[in-house]
Amino acid sequence: MDNIKGTIIDEAHRIGIDVIGFAPCSVLNNAREILKDRENKGYLSGFEEKDIEKRIDPSLQLEGCKTIISAGISYRTDEKNIKLKSSYICKCIVSKSSWGIDYHNVLRHKLKELSQFIECRYGARTKLFVDTGPLLEREIARMAGVGFVGKNGFIINDEFGSFIFLGEILLDICIEPDEPAEGGCKDCDICIRACPTRALCSPYTLNAKRCISYMTQSKTISPKDYDALGCNIYGCDICQDVCPKNKSIRFKNHTEFIPECWNSFPDAADILNMDNKTYNKTFKNTASGWRGKRILQRNAVISLGNSHDREAARYIINMLSDGRKEIRETSIYALYKLLGKESFPVLKRCRDIESDDDLKRIINCLIDNA
Ligand code: B12
User: What mean pLDDT comes out for the span 153-166?
Assistant: First the structure.
């Protein structure tokens, strides 16, 4: 038998996987208490698998699992090449994780190629995951030496920083494990101080429900949080952008993640004008695609409200008669945010033709409390 580990690493690099590490298959006992604690405090997002044992026991995913390969792909790309619009009504922000083609497909494809190679060459049984599986990918990556856990909760790799997506291949053959990643943030707490919503409540602890990334993806969002969204319409990179460990990292510029104007810095006005066909062509195949057009448009209305540009008002006014209740609701708040009392004549007209009692009440409240 050849040098299994070296051969797999070479093949992974050939396929375009940037970081690879090997962890022994064991129950992730460290994480059990962390998950229970987050659950008790109400800090979990609800997007995670509920069953804690499934999250921490890899052998429940692949019977006879002996080794886990943790793989990372860098998604940092050169922003200089993005051709922006010459003028914007409201320039929105899409997190880097959603630039280019959906990373789930990109990394899954590469891991599939690697697992087929391992199956053919070594007769192993394999199972792979990228993001949507139950296992805690960061803990596996830490154990496999892919990166250490930063105070922002991210896996931080020495070469590529935290802008790496993670995936795993479970194997039923033994391969010599790597050492868990060492390193740390020392006394740096820039990310904690930079989070506008204080979602990072203490080192390593994220209250996911306060995370802007969560808010942009959640089906419901409280009007109290509209300000916090700023112009973020999908995801949030603040706690990574400020991290000193991301300052002098290597950019891999994978072509799949090269941003284009429409999926990195779109105009809120364009997003509101988008029909289904345009949406499917532009956003459907990105990492934000799973959330659909409605949520993106809701966030675009909120961004217009946060734009401080009175020019934006006419785009919001158009949405006051939209067929979808939540779009009308966010438009009411956005218009009031932008124009204050000057919005009342329009809002009163809107109330007179509004069929929904909740929305009539919201308009009355805004007018009465002004
Ligand atoms: C649910 C989820 C979300 C939720 C909740 C996020 C969260 N931090 O819990 C929301 C929607 C908010 C979200 C947002 C994002 N996500 Co997300 N998300 C997930 C998912 C599916 C589960 C995360 C989870 O279980 N959280 C619960 C907490 C307890 O677990 P954890 O985050 O893994 O935390 C570990 C460490 O913090 C550590 N830890 C905790 N306490 C302590 C204490 C000490 C002392 C130490 C040393 C360690 C430590 O142990 C925990 C368990 O191992 C994972 C994929 C997966 N299956 O694991 C992706 C994942 C974490 N997300 C990812 C990404 C890229 C993002 C976004 C950047 C996307 C974006 N640009 O908006 C944001 C970043 C938000 C953030 N600050 O984390 C990547 C992170 C890659 C990396 N380099 O770390 C993952 C791994 C997906 C992937 N396959 O690449 N996400």
Answer: 98
Backbone φ and ψ for 252, nearest 5 degrees, come out as -90, -25
Type of residue found at 145:
G
Q: 95: Cβ below 6 Å to ligand 1?
A: yes
Task: Look at residue 9 and tell me if it is in a domain.
Answer: yes
Task: Judge whether 232 lies within some domain.
Answer: no
Identify the domain containing residue 111 by its residue range.
Answer: 4-80+100-171
For the chain, the 3-state helix, strand and coil shares in percent, each to the nearest 5, are 50, 10, 40
pTM tops 0.90, yes or no: yes
How many Å lie between the centroid of ligand 1 and the Cα of residue 14? 28
Q: Domain count for the chain, please give it.
A: 1
165 within ligand 1 shell (Cβ under 6 A): yes
* Residue among 30, 38, 45 to mutate when testing ligand 1 (max atoms within 8 A of CB): 45
Catalytic residue numbers, as ranges: 131
> pLDDT by residue (tens digit) across 288-345?
999 999 999 999 999 999 999 999 999 999 999 999 999 999 999 999 999 999 999 9
31 ligand 1 Cβ < 6 A: yes
**Strand 232-234 relative to strand 200-202: parallel, antiparallel, unpaired?**
unpaired
Ligand 1 within 6 A of CB of 34: yes
**C-alpha of 313 from chain center:** 29
Please, is 167 exposed, middle or buried when counting C-beta atoms within 10 Å of its C-beta (0-12, 13-18, 19+)?
Answer: buried
Q: To test the ligand 1 pocket, which listed residue (93, 158, 213) has its Cβ within 8 A of the most ligand atoms?
A: 213
Residue 21 DSSP symbol: E
In a domain, 231, yes or no: no
CB burial string 155-166: b at 16+ within 10 A, e below: bbbeebbbbbbb
Does residue 180 line the site of ligand 1, with CB under 6 A?
no
Does residue 150 sit within a domain?
yes
| H-only helix segments in the chain | 4-15, 29-41, 52-56, 103-122, 137-143, 190-194, 212-217, 226-229, 238-241, 261-264, 268-273, 276-282, 292-305, 313-319, 325-339, 344-353, 357-369
User: Quick check: 22 and 176 in contact, CB under 8 A?
Assistant: yes
